[in-house]
Design goal:
Rossmann fold, 20% strand, ATP binding, ATP hydrolysis activity, ABC_transporter-like_CS, binds adenosine-5'-triphosphate, disordered C terminus, 374 residues, P-loop_NTPase, alpha/beta
């Protein structure tokens, strides 16, 4: 078991996570000024585990996905660490980075129609990463591998001769997944893999991803604005707001019993299909996320928060433990003792009366310090 900041607890063996992201910051430089898109994200992914990253449009999810493989535009300034099997992607040489892309980790983007080359046959597109990484592959072996990959994603090998426009949206997304699997990566990053698809096809693609990742030991980072999709697919969830991870923990706990009011609103906005008990707030969340270039002081969620307190105007919360394996960046999760230890002002009526959707922590208080003081 690790501390929330990723350091191992005393007496535990060193961590074996395949992906370890430490204090990732991404700022875009634009003509209109600097846009801090990701503000200090830290998370990790053990081999074979699935982490879902959720949040509204513009909170920085895709920026994280692109940063993991150094695919951001030159206008992005990136700091922090992205350790893939212990090697920092952000500082590795180009030759090594080329080897890591596709084979160490690969990305399935949203909207397969835009990601596939419209004038190239499907088989030739799947062949590209294979040839990039295996110079000695014979034509017969290549054909066999392309056929096997198509079968793996539920398409007949003969579809290798098709062009993207001859396939349905779901089939195209299957091709993207086949490409992502082509070099047998240990991590797949799926950025809104089902967003453009109708509900039935969404479910099929999610089942496919689940079955492919399930027993293979491949780790997966799945990005979606839909918390219920992630809760059904992933082991852990990280909820982002305005460039920060504001809650992290086991998927079913974060979805069913959110500790951050933003996660609670997000899970209520995306109730589980066929589960009326999860339909807690059909009206969704009022207001819009803040402009990242003009964040409010204190907690960035405060202007929309249904349970904001006076102290939220001055405290910029960090991830505080709310259990052995969970954390949330909201002052309401702190007991009075933990708040004192963290230098957070007490709110006289903080834990009296109705506190839904956030609620006070049941966490041990000795770890409740701001991250930067640990
Ligand atoms: N190339 C870029 N140049 C400048 N700003 C950018 C660029 N890409 C993204 N941004 C800004 O960075 C912030 C985060 O964007 P990002 O696309 O990572 O969010 P997201 O959560 O993935 O949203 P969506 O689901 O809409 O893709 C947004 O304010 C966005 O406008």
């Amino acid at each position: 078991m690790n501390h929330v900041d990723g350091t191992p607890r005393e007496g535990t063996p060193p961590r074996t996570d395949y992906l370890q992201v430490n204090d990732l910051h991404v700022t875009y430089r634009t003509a209109g000024g600097e846009i801090p898109a990701v503000r200090g994200a830290s998370f990790s992914l053990a081999p074979g585990s699935k982490l879902g990253v959720a949040g509204e449009s513009g909170c920085g999810k895709s920026t994280i996905a692109l940063a993991l493989l150094r695919l951001l535009p030159k206008t992005a300034r990136v700091t922090g660490e992205v350790l893939l099997d212990g090697e920092d992607v952000l500082t590795m040489r180009w030759g090594r980075l080329r080897a890591v892309r596709w084979a160490g980790a690969s990305i399935v983007f949203q909207g397969a129609m835009h990601s596939l080359n419209a004038v190239q046959r499907i088989g030739d597109q799947i062949a590209e990463p294979i040839l990039l990484h295996g110079s000695g592959v014979t034509p017969a072996e290549l054909k066999r591998r392309i056929g096997a990959l198509l079968e793996q994603v539920g398409l007949p090998p003969a579809r290798a001769r098709a062009y993207p426009h001859e396939l349905s949206g779901g089939q195209r997304q299957r091709v993207m997944i086949a490409m992502a699997l082509a070099c047998e990566p240990r991590l797949i990053i799926a950025d809104e893999p089902t967003t453009a698809l109708d509900v039935m096809i969404q479910a099929q693609i999610l089942r496919l991803i689940d079955s492919l990742v399930g027993d293979s030991g491949i780790s997966m980072l799945m990005i979606s604005h839909d918390l219920s999709v992630l809760a059904d697919t992933c082991d852990r969830l990280a909820v982002m707001y305005a460039g920060r991870i504001v809650e992290e923990g086991p998927a079913h706990q974060v979805f069913a019993d959110a500790r951050h009011p933003y996660s609670a609103a997000l899970s209520a906005a995306f109730p589980r299909v066929g589960d009326p008990s999860s339909r807690r707030n059909p009206h969704g969340l009022a207001g819009d996320p803040p402009d990242p270039a003009d964040l409010p002081g204190g907690c960035a969620f405060r202007p929309r928060c249904p349970v904001a307190q006076d102290r939220c105007a001055s405290v910029d919360p960090v991830l505080w433990p709310v259990g052995p394996d969970r954390a949330a960046a909201c002052v309401r999760v702190l007991s009075d003792d933990a708040a004192r230890a963290a230098g957070v002002p007490l709110e006289p009526d903080a834990f009296s009366g109705e506190v839904s959707p956030a609620r006070p922590a049941d966490a041990p208080t000795e770890n409740a310090q701001p991250e930067e003081t640990r």
